Amino acid sequence: MELKNKRVLVVGLARTGVATALFCAARGAVVTATESRGEMAIGENVGKLHSAGVTLELGGHQEKTFLHQDFIIPSPGVPADFPLLLAARANGIPTWSEIELAYRFLLGTLIGITGSNGKTTTTALVEHVLRTADFPTLLAGNIGTPLISAVENTKRNTITVIELSSFQLELIETFRPNVGLFLNLTPDHLDRHRSMKIYGAAKARLFENQTEQDAAILNADDPAVTPYAPAKPRVYWFSRKQRVSEGAYLHGDDLMFRRGGAEETILTRGEIPLVGAHNLENVLAAVIATRLAGATAQDVAKGIRSFAGVEHRLEFVAEVNGVRYYNDSKATNVDATLKALDAFPSHILIILGGKDKDSDYTVLQKPLREKAILALLIGAASEKIEKQIAASVAIERAGTLHRAVEAASQAARSGDIVLLAPACASFDQFENYEHRGRVFKDLVGQLKPHRVAIDSGKSTPTGSGRS
After folding, report:
1. Residues 11-67: pLDDT tens digits?
2. Residue 450 pLDDT exceeds 70
3. What share of the chain is helix, strand, coil (3-state, %, to 5)?
4. Are 163 and 182 in contact (CB under 8 A)?
5. 53 DSSP assignment
6. Cα–Cα distance between 363 and 276 in angstroms, integer?
7. Percent of the chain, pLDDT > 90?
8. Which residues of 40-53 are buried (b: 16+ CB within 10 A; e: fewer)?
């Protein structure tokens, strides 16, 4: 695609917007970047953008700016139905997501992964398995590095593994992964998409441009996903509960892979280092993707065994006074929190709350009643969560994460689990879920072991705990 002298508007100057503006400017485009925030909020990127020749429109948006472009690239955080984007499309101006633009320059093979939960873990696992098997790989997308930033490093033999959100997929045109994975579909982002039908359709655009030479991988155990199985690409299924004709499934404790009538054992369930049934599903999906990409069964098993997990996703932080602390800040919706609760047998003190996404927290009542000791509520959604989980577990309105960690450390005793799995977005008190997770880990790191007093030859902790 030729960008030279094209008039390009980038909407939003977070990480993806900045990367997109610099990419287009470097290729001779006439770039304007518009952002509702002021210069102070953009920080050091203002200088980088000015140096690259990008025209900045800060502190608000002007309709005339949107109507005099060759195409527009909104950042993922900008809704597709933003009125000025609708006005531009009504005037025939193409509006693409950043992944659509990046795809037009990308070389090599593309593996795209979406779903309501498990995207980050599965994306990182697929890339890890392929990299340890000596394939040239790149990791990009919603997992941290914008796809547009990876383009320069791709070659004909590169395998790019990309995490994809519904926000990114809703504005594609030609974007086409060679292998597409749709992991699951549960309520999320309904404050933006308005209905599960719209949300699911955005996710399913992953398969829209695939051909007979491509592969689609879907969750056979998720009735919300199965209707989205596409007609053109080869379809593979993964399942914890049933044998599949093509794909990966659990047979007893063995993870099996089937293709073209042939079947092989990859590894056993006990060899998987990740906790939780949901991670078993993620591993099954990764088995299919990596085998289709050319990794041997032995390489796949080796990669899975050596995978250390993903930061902020059921990440073990520390054990203090016999209490284990886990960071699942990536649990930004209710279903992710349900999966986190399912990963532990009992004795959980859970930190919930943040920015509500029009979620239903009543479904947390049963697992909280069965497994939790205390729910510590933080952030803007605290009142709604308290009303919807009342009577299922003891509740403390901590307000802030600092206070929640402090209260949890005082209430927990040896053998308990303190779990940050908020079921909410982070934007009320933090920059993003990564920021929230880092703060949690820092707070846990500041906890001190109980002092030990010696009395008649017996050691007893003098710190606070439950009676």
Report:
1. 999 899 999 999 999 999 999 999 999 998 888 999 999 999 999 999 999 999 999
2. no
3. 35, 25, 40
4. no
5. T
6. 18
7. 82
8. eebeebbeebeebe
Q: How far is CA 313 from the centre of its chain?
A: 9
Tell me which DSSP letter residue 315 carries: E
DSSP 270: G
The CA–CA distances, whole Å, from 41 to 56, 82, 208 equal 13, 21, 37
For 34, the 3-state DSSP assignment is strand
pLDDT at residue 192, rounded to an integer = 67
The token pair that represents 144 in the structure block: 């941290």
Instruction: Check: CB of residue 433 under 8 Å from CB of residue 312.
Output: yes
> Residue 57: beta bridge partners?
34
The residues, any chain, with a CB within 8 Å of residue 234's CB and separated by 6 or more, are 212, 214, 215, 216, 246
From 91, 43, 86, 40, select the one nearest 61 (Cα to Cα): 86
Residue ranges of alpha helices (H) inside 140-268 are 147-150, 166-169, 190-193, 196-204
The lowest-confidence range among 105-109, 123-127, 426-430, 449-453 is: 449-453
Tell me the C-alpha distance between 409 and 111, whole Å: 42
DSSP codes of every residue in 102-128: HHTT--SEEEEEE-SSSHHHHHHHHHH
Q: Tell me which amino acid residue 346 is.
A: S
Three-state SS string over 67-81 comes to CCCCEEEECCCCCCC
d(CA 183, CA 119): 7
- pTM higher than 0.85, yes or no? no
Closest CA to 57 of 75, 93, 31, 76: 31
As a whole number of angstroms, the distance between CA 117 and CA 324 comes to: 24
